[in-house]
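User: My instructor asked us to take a sequence, write out its structure as C-alpha cells, and then describe one feature of it. I'm not sure where to start. Here is the sequence I was given:
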Amino acid sequence: MRRPSVAGQFYAPDAAGLRKQIEGCFLHRLGLGRLPKAEDKERDILGAVVPHAGYVYSGPEAAHVYYSIAGQKKPKTVVILGPNHSGYGSAVAVSKESWKTPLGEAAIDSEAADFLRKNCDIIDADEVAHRYEHSIEVQLPFLQYIYRDFKFVPICIGIQDLNTSEEIAQCLGKIKDALILASSDFTHYEPKEQAAAKDNKAIEHILNLDEKKFLQTVYDLDISICGYGPIATCIAAVKKLGATKAELLKYATSGDITGDDSSVVAYAAIVFKK
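Assistant: Let's start with the prediction itself. The C-alpha cells for your sequence are:
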C-alpha cells in the first residue's frame, strides 16, 4: 500500500480536518460557495484538468472540477495522469498498489491497470515513480469526498512529448466508462499579468481540443506548466472517448490568496465534455 507523501503539507493530516478543509475549498470565495450534491445524472464530463498545489492555494479551483463531476454518475474507473516532479522511477509508470489517505484506502482498478501495462509498451508497473509524487495524491481526497468508494489508475508521466501522449491516449481510449484527470498547475513564479497572458494562449488550445497546438505553444512561449504532458494526453484520450468540447470553469493564481501578484503560480479548472 502506498502511504501518503504530502499529508500535513499539501492538505490536512487527519480525516476530520481534511473533510473540513475540502468543504472549505468548495465554500471558498474562489470556489463555488456551496457544497456538491451527489446526483445520478448521465455523465457528459469525460475528463478534466485540475491543479495540484497545496489546498490552501489551489483547492478552491480544483473544487470547481469536483463539484461538476459530483453531480453525475460515478465512472467505472478514474484515470489520474500526473507529471513526475521527483525524477524517480520509470519514465511512464502505473501503480498497482492501493493508496492510503487520511480519508481511507483508495483501490486500484487492477483490470484497467493491467490492460494499460500489457497494451501500451511505454507504460511500466513501477511504485518508485509514485512514492514521492504529489500531483496524483492530492486528487484522491477530493475523489474520496465526492464518491466515497471508487477505483482509479494512477499514471506518472516523466516523458512529456507528443509521441508519448499519443501512445498513452491510444490505450486510454479503449477503457470503457473512464474519467480521465490531468493533474497540472499552470505558469510558475511570474508576475500575475504575464502568467495570465501566457496561460490564456495555452488554454485557448486546450478549449479547442488541440493537443498539438497546445504543446507547441508551451514550447514556443516557454510556459512553465508542470503537467503539459498529462494535459496533452488527456486531450487526446478524451477525444477518443467522444469529447467534443471543453469548458474553463475557473482560472486563478496564488496571488488571489496571498495578495502578492509579483510572483505567482497559476491554476486552471477545465472539463472536457461529450
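For the description part of your assignment, you could build on this observation: Residues 15-273 form a domain with the Protocatechuate 4,5-dioxygenase; Chain B fold (CATH 3.40.830.10). Try explaining in your own words what that tells you about the chain.
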